[in-house]
Design brief:
Oligomer: homodimer
Shape of chain A: flat
Structural class of chain A: mainly alpha
Largest interface: A-B, 86 and 86 residues
Strand content of chain A: under 5%
Number of helices of chain A: 11
Chain lengths: ~270, ~270
DNA sequence: AAAGTTAGTTTATGCCGTAAGGAGTGGCAA
DNA sequence: TTGCCACTCCTTACGGCATAAACTAACTTT
């Protein structure tokens, strides 16, 4: 097994924080590419065709180079993805109006995050195991923390809250992101897919109603009606789930704030 | 592009619901394997080494066969994964005591789901774009719906709530699951990794405290202290985030229930 | 002009999913 | 009993992937 050592950490961090030595007066041919150019190409591919289509070959080709040419600028594919991640995070707003209270600010923050994830759905596949520790990741954290600090909750509570909020927005966005990819991936629209499936389901599980009474009841209670026909059914519903879930979450936070406030009274 | 037609849907569903024609009196050699044996082998590999290690070759080898032998039983790798998913879902409890109220029941349901995801972290990587429509997926839904129906909320609200709860548990579990994989994947413990990184961070961002005042403040406010030294720091914290977040979510649901109840009064 | 460093290529290794085709198995109809 | 044929399982092969190694060509410094 290959162990990543101190040197690798230094290289990674230098790339992320753009702290590399300037390329002036160095021997050898002039660089024909730059890390930023590579990142733009890679992000464009991932945005348009998803993470699965992001290969070193594809990025190289888009830049008129071979896959191997990229290794001059970036140590590996996984580092490339980390860099892409930190780069797109720069799109996010860095501060929110706090005049109307933290709840309003958190709501619009969540909306921005939601839109961001849908703009770059591949970000949802970047491992959250360990932070990337890039500058924009820190900015993103700082931004939401600045809002949440307004609640007056303790540091420990804030730490947990940040985790919960990110989890929630990510997970909600993931549902929509994946459902957008599905038709392209399977070459089948949601309608076609569902039609084929549900027909077979009746054959294969004729006792469905008895086996799943609650589900059957729910299905009977007026299915969701979309107002906007241009947006797919599933997506519309997911958006409402997001809004409703966020409201529930914020209600919970408000309850915690009130509890803390009451306890502070004489 | 290859389009999946009606025939594929029928084959998939038959496999999921075990509605295949019995193998008695059929010509040709007796099957040396079975779908269940294959699923057990595949699940064992995915549990132990993660989704990335799950290849048709690996599963075949574990069963003393070649990769291609599996295609007699299972049409493709993605169908295999769907089958694995529905199979492990069978481990989950199918009903919860409702005597102590829905809140208690939801809490233990969430705990079971959390443990389930950590037992089978690869499940978190199964696409949620479209439901698999296997029997156990329906059972799982039925189970949680039966609990939530106790709240007395409307069908629409319930639909959203189920989504939110699944999102939340999945996302929270994902953090821990990924952080468990990280040391194995990089050959570096969390401590080593963090030590190497933070040393470089000071070099590369000497103005950290000014750029990220809120983060710096949070860091100063007593870092989390683990009681149980055997469990990694990050994991302990994630578990608390899960519990705290769930409580917040349930508070929010309770608020919605109370609002609905008040509105129903004369 | 020689030496040394760098950018980018070609080539090769070992993975992956799976298509194609062939070998052997065994139940059934003739 | 023979021949057929559906069936299981194998070998081989293809085109993808990340990336290691060795090479060429460009450019700066000595």
């Amino acid at each position: 097994m290959v162990f990543a050592g101190q040197g690798d950490a230094r290289r990674s961090m230098a790339l992320l924080w753009r702290a590399g030595s300037p390329a002036q007066g160095r021997p050898g041919p002039k660089p024909g590419l730059s890390v930023d150019e590579i990142l733009d190409a890679a992000v464009a591919i991932a945005d348009a065709q998803g993470m699965a289509a992001l290969s070193m070959r594809a990025v190289g080709e888009r830049l008129g180079r071979t896959a191997m040419a990229l290794y001059t600028y970036v140590p590996s594919k996984s580092e490339l993805v980390d860099l892409m991640y930190d780069r797109v995070l720069a799109e996010l707003p860095v501060s929110y109006e706090l005049g109307a209270g933290w709840r309003v600010a958190v709501t619009s923050w969540a909306g921005e995050m939601w839109a961001f994830y849908l703009r770059h759905p591949w970000v949802l596949q970047v491992s959250q195991a360990r932070p990337v520790l890039g500058p924009n990741e820190y900015v993103t954290l700082e931004t939401v923390l600045r809002i949440l600090r307004e609640t007056g909750l303790t540091a420990g509570a804030l730490r947990r809250l940040v985790g919960v909020l990110f989890h929630f927005v990510r997970a909600a966005a993931q549902t929509v992101a994946e459902s957008r990819q599905a038709p392209a991936a399977t070459g089948m629209s949601d309608e076609e897919w569902w039609y084929a499936r549900s027909a077979v389901l009746e054959e294969v599980a004729p006792d469905f109603a008895e086996r799943f009474p609650t589900l059957t009841w729910l299905d009977g209670e007026g299915a969701y009606q979309s107002e906007d026909e241009s947006v797919p059914y599933l997506e519309q519903e997911a958006k409402e789930t997001f809004a409703a879930g966020l409201a529930v979450l914020l209600d919970g936070i408000e309850a915690a704030v009130n509890r803390a406030g009451l306890r502070a009274l004489p």
